[in-house]
Amino acid sequence: MTDKKEDIEVVETGSLDDKTTPVLDHSAVDPVYQAKAHVLNNAIQQIGMGKYQWELFVLVGFGWASDNLWPIVTSLILPAVALEFNQSKPPLLSLSQNIGLLVGAIFWGFGCDIFGRRLAFNMTIGVTAVFGLIAAGSPNFVGIAFFVALWSVGVGGNLPVDSAVFLEFLPGSHQYLLTVLSIFWALAQLFATLVAWPLLGYHTCSAEQTTPCTKSENFGWRWFLIAMGSFAMVCFILRFVVFTLYESPKYLMGKGQDAQAVEVVHKVAQKNGKTSPLSLADLEIHDEGGQQGIDASAALKRKLEKVNLTHVRALFRSKKLAYSTTLIMSIWAFIGLAYPLYNSFIPYTLASKGASFGDGSTYLTYRNSLIIAVLGVPGALIGGVLVETPRVGRKGALALSTTLTGVFLFCSTTAKNSNSLLGWNCAFNFCSNVMYAVLYAYTPEIFPTKDRGTGNALTASANRVFGIMAPIIAIYADLKTSAPVYVSGALFIAAGAATCALPFESRGKASL
Question: Is the pLDDT of residue 179 over 80?
Answer without folding.
Answer: no
